[in-house]
Amino acid sequence: MSFQTPVTIANAISQIENSKYLVPAIQREFVWKHDRIEQLFDSLMQGYPISSFLFWEVQEQNVNQFKFYKIIKDFRERYKTHNEEYNTSGSNGFYAILDGQQRLTSLYIGLKGSFAYKTPRKKWEDNQNSLPTRDLYLNITKELSEQENGRKYQFQFLDRNLTNQKNFYDKDEQKWFRVSHILDYTDDKKLGDMIKNLDSEFARKSIRQLKRVIHERQIINFYLEEEQNLDKALKIFIRINSGGIALSFSDLIMSIAISNWKTKDARREILGLVDEIKNKDFHISKDLILKTFLYLYSTDIGFKVTNFSSEKAKIFEDNWLSIKNAILSTFDLIKSFGFDEYNLTSKNSIIPIIYYLYHRNIYKDFTHKVEFKNERKIIKEWLHIVLINRVFGGTSDSTLSQIRKVFSNDVVKEPIKLDIDIFPKIQMLDSIRKDMVIDYDNILNIQYEDKYAFSILSLLYPNLDYKNNNFHKDHLHPETSYELLSDDLKEKYSREVYNSIINLQMLGANENSSKQNKELAEWVSQETQTKNKEEFLDNHLIPDIDLSLMNFDVFVEKRKALIIKKLKELVGTLE
User: Fold this and answer.
1) What is residue 91's three-state secondary structure?
2) How far is CA 570 from CA 130, 324, 386, in A?
């Protein structure tokens, strides 16, 4: 490995454009935010060093031995974040970036591409309203004050809908210069003709400085590894990245998994699955997929290099389609339970469900088959219980391992015991008894808006149409009636009590429409004119007492008892 003659940024951009600088499959994806790119350009303008780069020279005889990707050009947060694979056939060689991809990608986006990020208070939707395409501009009006994080030059990604990609854009008495335009000016005369009519010395000086930074100064300092050895390149990559805070160890683990797959493109497959689950309105990382594989096939489920050996990688690749389908089927299942990204409070909680469905080979159409109706009910109860009790906290690996012992004593030889023919809810809860701290007071105090309210109410009201999202949270005593409580009752019961599980229920959409803002006593009286009152009260967990607002203190105590009794029945042997 040797230090090479530095090159200019313009030269590096040209190399990227000509696919001479590529990203190896062992690299993570681009993760920098827009403000970090803006800061990088300010650092360059102020003459600050941006550290050295490390490239691996891939010679012609080895170009097809590994997967390589283009540097991303037009980045769209969440929606366009994956690098495009580069077809290396016919290539006579190129440089693979082992260290410095984030900086080079930032330079490329700023000078040749675009960066789309979500506008505050807009929904996550892949359109120009929510995520407008933005180009990098330099404010050439005046120098920033020293108070602004040490920045001297203001770089900012501006909405293309407003700027129309003009080279000079005026906004609020400020003039902005489109950074990519500087690539058109390689000599001073042409640049001088362009800036001579600008009305500010700072504007002229800023653009001249930008030209020096991009075209003249040899800023890209790099080391070059020339030895044609993939294993060595991987070891170098791990050595230089494992100490970095921004790069998680799971990124390195995925790098190894990717490099060991032989026929499938692991990067595309794994990230493609992340995208498929995103389309189901759940957001996961590749970590969950890697953890699921370990849970399915490895005695040790820790994120360790040894757990992704070439032998394990072969198992992963050979069984990938089944693993993928089991994961997708499980997300379909939990969506049918009414879960969404907000109220699924631990993604790790679904891994044991995947394990059970996968190793019993019943994941295909599990969500819909009539024969599994009772199992779906049991799985749903188990999932709500572990989420409410927050058992998947800082010791998730330990909890997962304990649960897996219910399924198997040896995951390699017998991944699921022969006598397990139904989801072992009680045994699984018993296995994590020490992690189950069932605090009924805490459960009862959960508020209407809390993300845990869904699981509690779903347990208490299991027979609604959660699959079609045909359910509503509802206050028994209407929310607006709190102010009608007597002063004594208000002093005894805060609004938090009134807004808690004690005064909440889950209703079908039609039933909630009929209740609307009716007082509880009036609604119950109306509904039980044509229904069995005892059955109605039992189904809605409403105590058979005077339900007028003035009797709220009795209602609170009686409803507490009903809810705790119901939850204890569901938790079973733990009590």
Assistant:
1) coil
2) 43, 31, 12
What's the CA gap between 27 and 98, in Å, rounded?
7
Q: Which runs of E-coded beta strand occur in 194-316?
A: 222-225
What is the identity of the amino acid at 35? D
Query: Among 370, 385, 326, 44, which Cα is nearest to 182's?
Result: 44
Q: Residue 260 forms beta bridges with which residues? A: none
Tokens 């991809």 — which residue? 101
Query: Among all chains, which residue has been given the structure tokens 């001479």?
Result: 20
Residue pointed to by tokens 């017998």:
414
Q: Among 30-39, 187-196, 303-312, 521-530, where is mean pLDDT lowest?
A: 303-312
Q: What is the pLDDT of residue 573?
A: 43
Of 330, 312, 237, 228, the residue nearest 276 (C-alpha): 330
Task: Please state, in angstroms and rounded to a whole number, the distance separating the CA atoms of residues 356 and 354.
Answer: 6
Q: What are phi and psi of 357, to 5 degrees?
A: -65, -40
- Taking residues 290-316, what's their average pLDDT? 86
Q: Which helix (H) or strand (E) holds 168?
A: strand 168-171
Rg of the chain's alpha carbons, rounded to an integer? 30
What pLDDT, in 10s, does the model give residues 340-367? 999 999 999 999 999 999 999 999 999 9
Of 442 and 134, which is predicted with more confidence? 134
506: closest CA among 448, 547, 426? 448
